[in-house]
Amino acid sequence: MKKGFYNILKANFLINEDAFKNWRFIVFCTVLAIIMIASSHSAERKVHEIARLHEEVLELRSEFLEGRSNLMKIKMESTVTNEMKKIGIGPSDIPPYKLRVKVSE
Predict the structure, then answer these.
(1) Other CB atoms within 10 A of residue 47 CB
(2) Membrane-spanning residues where (predicted)?
(3) Whole-number Cα distances in Å, 1 to 4, 10, 12, 39
(4) 73: which residues sit within 8 A by CB, 6+ positions away?
(5) Measured distance CA(49)–CA(44) in Å, rounded
(6) Domain for residue 43, yes or no?
């Protein structure tokens, strides 16, 4: 037991005759660890990108709603009437009349 523990501490399993099997396993584990770390970083990057895009969507949605409410205010009849009075155009006192065209064949 004591000798086995010392062999592990001295890393004798890496330098003995069967070390090639151990090295292959260690390299395999190292490659898997590197892939796992890269995958984790990639996932974190995507999460941050999603959060940034979500904030941008919220900002654009509020900008859209603000623009739509401004448009509704501008389209109101009272606003149009006030703007037209500024340039000297007012509502007509005479109602409109229909034009009738007779088509003869």
Answers:
(1) 10
(2) 23-43
(3) 5, 14, 15, 39
(4) 79
(5) 9
(6) yes
How many domains are contained in the chain? 1
Q: Could you tell me the pTM of the whole model?
A: 0.56
Rounded Cα gap, residues 65 and 99, in angstroms: 42
Rounded to 5 degrees, φ, ψ at 18 are -90, 20
Amino acid (1-letter code) at residue 10:
K
Distances (CA, A) of 64 to 29, 54, 60, 71, 79: 52, 15, 6, 10, 21
Q: How far apart are alpha carbons 37 and 39 in whole angstroms?
A: 5
Range of the domain at 14: 2-86
